[in-house]
C-alpha cells in the first residue's frame, strides 16, 4: 500500500522479527523451528507482493492460504505424539514474554486505522482490547517468572482471558475484511492484511501468539496442583 508511511511497515517488520526471535528462544534455540518460520515468511512474502490476496470475491477466499496451514500445523502438534513432545519442551517463560509483541502490533493497527487501511473496531479505540494482553504480559513475566510471586492458577486464568481477547480480534478482523461473508466495517474494510508485510500478521504473529497460549494452558493445567511455578522453572533450566 503505497499511501502508507514507511515507518508503519518498518515497525511491523521489526515486530514480526521480534516475535520469531522470541519463539526461537522458547524452542530452546531450535534451528529447525527458526528455519521453518523463515521459510514460511518468505513464501508468504513472495505470494503477497504479487497481489494474490487482493482477490477477495472467491469462495473459499484466498485468505485461507494465510491462516489454514498454521492452524493445520498447530492441530498436528497437539494431536500427534511427536508434536506433543515438541510442545512440551517449549519454554514457558519465553512463551509469556512473546505476548509483549502485542503492544507494537496494536500500535501498528491504530496507525493503519488512521490511514484508512483497517476499521476502527480493530483498534484499541474500538472493539480490540488485545493491547491489555501485551501490557499485562510485562507484569506477568516480571512477577511470575522474574520474581516468582504468581501461582499457576493466576497464570492459567491470565492465559485463558488473553486467549479470548485474541479470538475476539481475530473474529472481528476476518468479518471486517472485504470477503463475500463480510459482516462489519463496510465503510472501511480491513484491507491491510491483504497486503505485504501485513499478511505476516495472520500467517505468523497470530498463530505464534495462539500456540503460545495453548501450550501455556496445557502446561499449567498439568502443574495446577503445584503451589507455584518455581518447580517448573527449575526443571526448565
What would you note in describing this structure?
The protein is 65% helix and 0% strand. With 237 residues, it is mainly α. It has one domain. The chain is globular and about 50 Å long.
- Rg estimate, integer Å: 18 Å
Q: Please give the share of residues in helix.
A: 55-70%
Task: Briefly note the structural class of the backbone.
Answer: mainly alpha
Low-confidence stretches: 228-237
Biggest sheet details: none
The average pLDDT value, as a whole number, equals: 92
Q: Enumerate how many helices there are, as a single number.
A: 10
Number of domains: 1
Total DSSP E strands: 0
Which of globular, elongated, flat, extended, rod-shaped describes the shape? globular
What's the SSE pattern?
A: HHHHHHHHHH
Percentage of β-strand residues = under 5%
Distance between the termini: 45 Å
In short:
The protein is mainly α and 237 residues long.
Question: What would the keywords be for this entry?
Answer:
237 residues; mainly alpha; 65% helix; 0% strand; disordered C terminus
How are the secondary structure elements laid out?
Elements: H1 6-26, H2 31-48, H3 64-79, H4 81-88, H5 92-97, H6 102-114, H7 131-146, H8 152-176, H9 200-222, H10 230-236
Amino acid at each position: 500500500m503505497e499511501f502508507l508511511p514507511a515507518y508503519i511497515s518498518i515497525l511491523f517488520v521489526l515486530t514480526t522479527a521480534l516475535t520469531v526471535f522470541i519463539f526461537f528462544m522458547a524452542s530452546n534455540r531450535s534451528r529447525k523451528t527458526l528455519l521453518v518460520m523463515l521459510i514460511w515468511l518468505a513464501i508468504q512474502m513472495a505470494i503477497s507482493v504479487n497481489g494474490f490476496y487482493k482477490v477477495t470475491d472467491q469462495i473459499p477466499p484466498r485468505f485461507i492460504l494465510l491462516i489454514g496451514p498454521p492452524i493445520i500445523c498447530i492441530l498436528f502438534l497437539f494431536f500427534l505424539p511427536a508434536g506433543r513432545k515438541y510442545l512440551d519442551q517449549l519454554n514457558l517463560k519465553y512463551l509469556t514474554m512473546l505476548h509483549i509483541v502485542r503492544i507494537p502490533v496494536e500500535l501498528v493497527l491504530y496507525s493503519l486505522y488512521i490511514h484508512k487501511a483497517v476499521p476502527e473496531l480493530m483498534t484499541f479505540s474500538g472493539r480490540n482490547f488485545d493491547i491489555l494482553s501485551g501490557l499485562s504480559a510485562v507484569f506477568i513475566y516480571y512477577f511470575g517468572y522474574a520474581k516468582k510471586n504468581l501461582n499457576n492458577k493466576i497464570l492459567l486464568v491470565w492465559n485463558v482471558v488473553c486467549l479470548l481477547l485474541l479470538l475476539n480480534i481475530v473474529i472481528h478482523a476476518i468479518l471486517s475484511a472485504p470477503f463475500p461473508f463480510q459482516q462489519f466495517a463496510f465503510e472501511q474494510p480491513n484491507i491491510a492484511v491483504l497486503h505485504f508485510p501485513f499478511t505476516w500478521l495472520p500467517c505468523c504473529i497470530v498463530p505464534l501468539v495462539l500456540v503460545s497460549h495453548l501450550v501455556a494452558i496445557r502446561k499449567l493445567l498439568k502443574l495446577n496442583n503445584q503451589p507455584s511455578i518455581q518447580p517448573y522453572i527449575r526443571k526448565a533450566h
